[in-house]
Records
---
Amino acid sequence: MIEIITTFTAFATAIAGMIGLCLAKERHYRLALPLSKLAEPPRRRLFWGGWVLLLVSVLLSMSAWGVGTGFSGWFGILTVAALFPVVLLSYAPRWLPGLGWAALMSAASAWPLIFGRGSPSQEARLRI
């Protein structure tokens, strides 16, 4: 059960990372947030934040499935996660920031389930 939660967390983190990388480009940022009062979009923070989220995603994937299977499975997760910004940028670009925050918050809410103490799967592993 914990592997499924970790996989969905890796997926949500990959979506947030891809959206961060997408919004790091000024053209996409202005398309998604046309009424932004910022003179200069926070491109560096979005760029590095996107890469950090993708790194967290690959680490979560490897922790769920092991190193070899997790790394190759992460490419599948990354492929599906890249579809969200591509499709939304074409059809509903203003939804990108909201989806990015929703994916990030859903991934953050799963952290206590994955790494919390006293979860049933961790207790079962300790008894064996």
---
Amino acid sequence: MNSQDAPVVPDEERNAFRVPRMFRMSSHPMVLFFFLFFRTSAIVAYILGMLFTSSFMLLFILIFTLLAMDLWTVKNVSGRLLVGLRWRNETGVDGESIWIFESADPNRPRNTIDQKVFWYGLYIYPAVWGLLAILALVRFQFLWLSLVAIGISLTSVNTAAYSRCDKDAKRRWATELVESNSSGFVSQFLSRVFVKRFFG
């Protein structure tokens, strides 16, 4: 067969087999990759370590490090870039915990792939850790259960915080929308009354 007879495959189709579609459609593929990488790596390390190694301390350090990196990445990078939300918790002068939520402009274009993967990943991974906790209880592996408890805790922090942040952002956007519409309605009403009163 002659090289001139071979069909020409566009670069886009050739690359389609190398990069999953989800990453090609993402606005921030590297952020999406690391969002999934740290979480998945911690679970895979736990499962493989439980099956193939007896060095609990090494696995504890590895999994704890992966979960800590996940916590920081999701809190400071992934949430801001993938869904336009950010949270932080500060301590007030009186020792009270103060939650601060930030959100991007609601008119900012959003990528549905980024949003779906972020929200599904935020809820699925703590559930997987929960299943692993049940498995550790059934097998009476209480030492491993302590590691699973850390996994549940560190993944659930971002889940709880981003859920509260999302509710707060939606509440603020709805309040701003109502205020802008009501002020627009009031100004239209007053202008009509003014026009009728003096010019009508």
---
Amino acid sequence: MNHIPGTVRFSDIRDALVRRFEVNGTHAFESVSGSMPRAEQGEAIKRNYATFETRVRLGVDDWKGFCPYEIADWAVVLTVPEFGAWQDIRSCGLPLWPRLPVGEFTVSFGNPQAKVALQVGTEYDGIAADELRADHWLKQIGWRVFRVPFENCLRVMDTPAEVRDRAGECSEDYRARYLTQTLAGAIQDLRHALIAAGAGV
């Protein structure tokens, strides 16, 4: 029987599933739990990302359709501020990966194809030298790095739309505070950077 262009053959699906099963057996992910010491967690996460990159090269996974929870159980691994950021990132559908290794550094959240990173930590005036070095190096290799302080990841404010609905209006001052004191401004900037880099958002 001749193959009709644009259709999928059962044999193609079968072959892809067999290949995925074979790769799952030889390139499996390690379990990363909250009970592991932080240094061991970090090393296991790096190994899982390396395994994932191998699986991408072998054609059984890709950065767009893969579940980040295969790398680690982020609910128990991330710090409280990181998890606050993770919830906003996921609810906005941003394709960012937690604790992504880039060279010798690890970014809080990143997209290796778009070369966009969110660093969760103190702002520049109180930043550790290693973090500044990481930001500088990432920028040198073409990454866009956004940094937010811990407190912005945890602060909850009514959106300007909610204020307007409740009070009938919302001041420009409130809008500015909402964008600079919560993750809203950083999420907006990240979305624009990801779109500009061609990442599906």
---
Amino acid sequence: MNETIKLLQNRRSVREFTGEKIKDEDLELILKTAQRAASSVNGQQISLIVVRDKDKLKKISELSHNQKHIEECDAFIFVLADFYRSTYAANSVGKRNVGPKTADGVVVGAVDAGIMVNAIETAVNALGYGMTVIGAIRSSLKEFSEMLELPQYVIPIVGAALGVPKDRPLSRLKPRVPFDSFVFFDKYDAKKVEEGVEEHEKDMVAWRNENNTSQLPSYKEMIVRIYENPHNKLVEALKSQGFDVLDEIEEK
């Protein structure tokens, strides 16, 4: 099998680290590689902030629901939706940038952040390190915006905890929904999706039992835990950083 395909097919989230350091040159290579990720209209509306200071990592952990692996990782990367850069570019030629004021702009920032974090993870895994994506930073956007001294039009979207992974064999990779309930041709198949959810629920429970992780929620349990009620309240934090979710803005 092609080595790149093998790397991608065997990716998994790593939450247990040895405490060893990532080589500085490897971290720089990871970051430079990630910078080649695609972005909407090549606007490059993503920036990264890397944190390695242990006291700061502890604080990030506390603000992210006390996830211990954040405190124990070697480096934490904030992936920022950064419209400060493109706003400056537009202003420098006497024009405005309405991107951060629109629903479309907020979506663009989130999409580009997702592309970026995937590029980071691929580079991390290629060099033999481990990583897990941290979405919980969105529960403390205001605090992180202050901690990182972010200007208007910049907001943290997602984080990544990196380190040297502990050797923790699993019975198999964590299951995914059945392939035929994930990929469709020509039209969506709701029935297949429903059948896939039921099959996946059973498979997740089996995987959990195989790996002695009964404390972990099943697929349905996790969905209900996160989405039964509003999970993160973002509107105030977004607006405090200059973002809005409008579809129309007064013509200039």
